[in-house]
Write a structure and sequence with these properties.
mainly alpha, about 90 residues, 3 helices
Length: about 90
């Protein structure tokens, strides 16, 4: 396999991983920001208050986005298998 092929495969893999992780990370960051603002406004600095909503939001996001994630991973796998001869030669 040529260097260009390896770089292309790595780039495709990283793009797919970023595309799958980005919505969950954005939701987690947004909830974290909102909780932090709420803690600053109320002067309540409890670790549980900041952790539980973030975990709940990420869990809900994963559950809601699971069908989309599965479709994206299936499409990525199909692209790999359709051009498999490039990777073994």
């Amino acid at each position: 396999m040529s260097t260009e092929g390896i770089v292309g495969l790595i780039r495709l893999t990283l793009e797919t991983a970023l595309m799958l992780a980005a919505p969950i990370l954005i939701i987690g960051s947004a909830v974290s920001l909102l909780v932090s603002i709420g803690q600053v406004l109320t002067s309540i600095q409890d670790a549980t208050i900041s952790t539980v909503p973030k975990l709940a939001a990420v869990a809900i996001a994963i559950f809601v986005l699971l069908p989309w994630t599965f479709r994206q991973l299936t499409a990525f796998t199909m692209v790999l298998f359709q051009d498999f001869h490039k990777y073994i030669g």
